[in-house]
Write a structure and sequence with these properties.
It is globular and about 75 Å long. Helix 11 runs antiparallel to helix 14 and helix 11 crosses helix 17. It has 19 helices and eleven strands. The structure holds flavin-adenine dinucleotide.
Length: 531
């Protein structure tokens, strides 16, 4: 008989916050619940509640953890030397993506023709993004390819949409996109990949793509130079699409992102030759909305973790959450997350209202701003957990690593800011529509009124011929906080609207945790996570 020596603890374990799960990510988020209702998606609240329960479960968190640890592995050839160009993905990845698909996170707005469908769909993305940012990439690309095909290639839409939108992981299809090349990603007109017409209506596409996420998707939108100029093609996964290696990237490590070689891969035109950018922009505008939602969701996850920890951790004789300096940090983080959530759901509603001037500008403005605010927010939320926040078990390092990705994707910071300037010029109705929305709060807070008056002056200077590009980020930032302030002044509790105007329209400090005196920090924190 073997005697097993049981290790005995050398000390009593105290002052360790309990795990957060299980918590329904919909139920615990007042800003989300109210936002869905306000923006016309109240009918879908039960669906979001159901997914929110799963998203906050220990099971979901364990799958995310496992998918992150067991990174995808490229398999280029089989044992006989034949090309397979496949990626081995952990079963947890399939659980995460399969669950998203089963809940129509990738397609609800295209399957349910009802006002508020984009709001509900965005809320589904918001809760699932809090589980894993990596799977949201194929979710977003699959979602966003649909409007691009509908607009520019109805026959391809008819062929592919039924599978792309199917809430069935096995029988459905997923989409990817391949625009970026080595010599330039933002400047896609510098693409050198060639597309030669074959004579049967298809093209042979040859060249190299430097970033191609989820390369095991069923179809891809690919930009290539055709005889008539830069054009967009639908390429099916198969012969001619060869994967060279997977990127060893900072964040979204559960997601495979490949360098891909196209060797006479067959493609079919999406839109006309030479009209590749407008065709793929239909897709990109929707993935930009998803970047905004993803970053807002990351903030929300950070706030939940930070408040939970600070309430259960004592230092110097009192819970951290009750100590004034920490209360300021938590309230500031909560304010930012609520402003991001409100903006994301408002912009989502614009997608329910058609392709109007507000939607065009608001997507670019808020994608720029919320994704830019993400990394500093994640860093601060992580620090609330002290040293434990830097340890992988806490989930905070993953949140932090993922946080800069949304800002790089789909138009990096400067490109997004310059896109706002372009939208203001191209569509003369865009800026007035945006400012009209901000002014709906007129008289609600004098600081917002003053900010909007000053913004009028800045925009007038811009029109008078200032160096618009040099000042682009400043203008976009001013527009973004104006919209967020307007939404919070109108719809959030007074403590939230007041603190946002006090801190973000001139009176706050530079890092998180610098809310000015007089704000009701306790009320903001209690709203963010009921104790
Ligand atoms: C995780 C991840 C996954 C990705 N997946 C895909 C994918 O699936 N498919 C795909 O096609 N691409 C993908 N990308 C690529 C991504 O879209 C590009 O990296 C991005 O568009 C920027 O292009 P670039 O890397 O060539 O940078 P560049 O275009 O060289 O830009 C470098 C910097 O210069 C700035 N800049 C560019 N133009 C200007 C200007 N006129 N004025 C001032 N500043 C400017 C940019 O904002 C950026 O900060 C992915 C990227 C990441 C990080």
């Amino acid at each position: 008989m073997t005697t097993v020596e049981t290790a005995r603890a050398t000390h009593e374990v105290t002052n360790q916050p309990p795990p957060l799960e299980p918590a329904n990510l919909f139920e615990i988020d007042a800003a989300l619940r109210e936002g869905i209702e306000r923006e016309g998606g109240g009918w879908g609240a039960d669906r979001v509640r159901e997914l929110g329960g799963l998203a906050g479960s220990a099971e979901a968190r364990q799958h995310a953890w496992r998918a992150e640890r067991n990174e995808p592995r490229l398999r280029t050839h089989d044992r006989y030397g034949h090309r397979v160009d496949d990626v081995e993905l952990d079963p947890s990845w399939h659980w995460l993506l399969g669950t998203a698909v089963a809940h129509e996170v990738h397609s609800l707005a295209w399957r349910v023709e009802r006002p508020g469908a984009h709001v509900v769909n965005s809320a589904l993305k918001f809760v699932w993004s809090q589980v894993d940012g990596g799977v949201m990439c194929p979710v977003s690309m699959t979602f966003s390819v649909v409007p691009a095909l509908r607009a520019a290639a109805p026959e391809l839409a008819a062929q592919w949409e039924p599978r792309l939108t199917l809430p069935d992981y096995e029988r459905g299809a997923r989409a990817g996109m391949a625009m970026t090349e080595k010599q330039g990603g933002s400047d896609v007109r510098a693409n050198t990949t060639r597309a030669e017409p074959v004579g049967d209506g298809t093209y042979e596409i040859t060249g190299h793509k430097w970033f191609c996420s989820y390369p095991v998707a069923d179809v891809f939108l690919v930009l290539a130079q055709a005889p008539g100029g830069l054009s967009c093609f639908l390429v099916e996964r198969g012969p001619g699409l060869e994967l060279q290696q997977l990127k060893d990237k900072l964040g979204t490590r559960s997601l495979p992102t490949a360098e891909a070689e196209l060797r006479a891969a067959r493609g079919r035109l999406v839109g006309a030759e030479g009209r590749g950018v407008p065709a793929i922009m239909q897709m990109v505008n929707h993935t930009r909305l998803d970047c905004l939602i993803g970053s807002a969701a990351g903030m929300r996850r950070g706030v939940t973790e930070a408040i939970h920890h600070a309430r259960h951790r004592t230092a110097f004789g009192a819970p951290l959450a009750e100590q004034p300096a920490m209360r300021n940090v938590l309230a500031d983080l909560a304010l930012e997350a609520e402003a991001a959530t409100a903006a994301a759901l408002r912009v989502a509603r614009a997608y329910d209202e058609g392709d109007g001037p507000f939607r065009r500008l608001a997507t670019a403005v808020m994608k720029y701003w919320v994704t830019k605010r993400g990394p500093a927010h994640a860093a601060e939320a992580l620090e609330c957990l002290g040293g434990n926040g830097t340890v992988e078990d806490s989930g905070m390092p993953l949140l932090f690593r993922d946080s800069p990705i949304n800002s790089t994707w789909e138009g990096s910071g400067n490109v997004a800011a310059l896109d706002v300037l372009r939208a203001m010029v191209k569509d003369p109705d865009a800026l007035p529509a945006f400012l009209d929305e901000c002014r709906l709060a007129a008289g609600g807070d004098a600081r917002l009124d003053a900010h909007l008056d000053a913004l009028d002056g800045t925009l007038a200077d811009l029109r008078a011929g200032g160096d618009a590009q040099f000042g682009a980020r400043r203008v976009v930032e001013d527009l973004a906080v104006a919209l967020q302030a307007s939404l919070l002044v109108r719809h959030a509790p007074a403590a939230v609207g007041d603190a946002f105007c006090a801190a973000r329209l001139g009176g706050g400090g530079r890092v998180y945790g610098t809310l000015p005196a007089g704000v009701d920090a306790a009320a903001i924190v209690d709203r963010a996570l009921a104790s």
